[in-house]
Amino acid sequence: MKGLKTVYICSECQHVSPKWLGKCPACGAWNSLVEDVVGEDKKSPTTARHALTARPTGRATPYKELDMPSYIRTATGLGELDRVLGGGLVLGSVVLLSGEPGIGKSTLLMQISDILGAHRQVLYISGEESSGQLRLRAERLGVVGENLSILTETNIEKILAEIDRAKPDVVIVDSIQTVYSENIASTAGAVTQVRESALALINKAKSDNISVILVGHVNKEGSIAGPKLLEHMVDAVLYFEGERQQTYRIIRAIKNRYGSTNEIGVFEMTDEGLAEVQNPSEMLLAGRPQNTPGNCAVCTMEGTRPLIAEIQALVSPTATPAPRRTSNGIDYNRLCLILAVLEKRLGLRFSANDVYINVIGGLRLDEPASDVAVAMALVSSLTDRAVPDDLIAIGELGLSGECRAVSGLEYRVKEAARLGFGRAVVPYRNLEKRELHADIEIIPIKSIFDVLTLLAPPQK
Ligand code: TYD
Ligand code: MG
Known about the structure:
A nine-stranded mixed β-sheet has the order 8-7-9-10-6-11-12-13-14, sandwiched between helices. The protein has a seven-stranded mixed β-sheet with strand order 17-18-16-15-19-22-23. The protein has a three-stranded antiparallel β-sheet with strand order 2-1-3, with no helix packed on it. The chain contains eleven helices and 23 strands. The protein folds into three domains: 37 residues; 206 residues, Rossmann fold; 172 residues, Ribosomal Protein S5, domain 2 (2-Layer Sandwich), CATH 3.30.230.10.
């Protein structure tokens, strides 16, 4: 088309290049350049415009004269979501909800639209589904639809006009990648389009004090397709995770200007939509195999909440010189480190074996406090000696095989006792300064050596 030209924009840093390159020369990211079409008259698609939460004043204010902000929050009605948001949806804030297709984003948003509609005007904008499809889903979810309006539109100018007309308190855009502006040459979903549409919606949210939730698609690598810049622009970024084959869903905040990012919300996908799981540990432990080598229970802290999960390891002999290490739910490097500690300190031959590790329920264990449980699951599978079913392991491993103290031990042990565990392996160091009160037998350990005697006799 005349007056248009093709450029390549880095989705990580927005660098513009006239030709495609495998590696972005500005930020060094690989495979991040995506094609975009811009008008000839513009050198770059946009100048560096940012959505500012702050109103520029041009003059510095003494710290002591700063006002304490007061946020107005509306509970979404789903306690698990409110927990992640830091207590509810903040008026005038923009939240990006991202997740893989089919994970349940539209379902969740339709459910909260209905609940929010009891007190607020909600406008649900869909660029992906027809109103008929939306109605069908809503019907299935038992939506009443008080104060809820549906708009199927993808043109940002028309969307803004409708927001001006309908004056909603909450706007949901499903998804931001379908929204486009007539004033920009590239197609919907292109970096420029996504960024400019998001910018327009963010500015609208700030100027009219509207809460906006944007749905963002995730690409294969797990990052939000389109500009990474979107994450910088919005107030909160929530990730909706889970295995589609399983019913659990976890919402995690990876950024939140109005609350902590530690909390997670747990849901279960049912026939009537997403149901909150107030007792996730029970769900995660359901159907646990009994007396089976390779399994070990662990307690992780997700924000203020202790969560009990199960780690499964499979260690099997391999003939290849480079054995496989596959990790699901645990950082790969952490797994390698634990394997190296076990090999060096306990003399166990993991290097002659393939190692697979998995955390049940699609949970991700980022905390080093799960090290001892990972190590026990690995040793258990290698030696065919089961970790007793009534035992839970808590502790971080040091490079010398020593067991290091963890935070929140009391909460962890209490949760284990509540779920019927009889014994807890805990770091000895935690007990040096403080006594631990719990209805569970405490087994303090100083190093990974100490756990070997706890395993059941070999099964073979
Ligand atoms: P959806 O919310 O459309 O996912 P997303 O918007 O993230 O792409 O739906 C996800 C899946 O959930 C869909 O495959 C069907 C299933 N589902 C249920 O199991 N129960 C329900 O009540 C609904 C509405 C959907
Ligand atoms: Mg959807």
